[in-house]
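INFO  loader      accepted 1 record
INFO  loader      residues=182
INFO  predictor   begin
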Amino acid sequence: MQKISIGNAEARIPQLSLNGMANLVRARNRWLSLAPSCSRTILLALVSLLGCNSTVMQSNPDASDTNYFPAAPYETVTSQEGMLNVSTWTSPNQPPIRGVIAVKLSVTNAANGDTQDGLTLSVNPVMPVMGHGSSTVPQVSAIGDGVFVITDMYLFMAGRWNLDITFAGSVTDNATIPLDVQ
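INFO  predictor   done
INFO  writer      dumping tokens
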């Protein structure tokens, strides 16, 4: 057996005659002459594929664009004190997938169904089973009519995450929104 190296790859092949070795050298040289153009083609293909998948790693680029979310909410919960109903949508996928996501909240008064404005929200994503939170601080934007958009939320593991939300302002309350991240 003879050891042959082409680039970083090595192979063991049976002993070749001089004619067979010359053919192998010609094939190796032909392969090496094609390698730079093949490498460029492979690199362009990888860059194209990564570009197509970029929405998974980006949150909603414009928090005011609430059309970026699905029509039906992902989850609706009542706050801990029973004062607020909070409907939740996730983007770019619902249910959410691992990565950076955006969340839209619609907050209404639980007693009469009116939209609840005049609130300041504090959002803390937590993965209770693992005992950790996210490595980024989500950004909250008040859109109006009780709608808030949370961007730059990085949920880096699949599994159950909770969005622990503290409401302050016209109402003081807390809510926990479960997100089953795929």
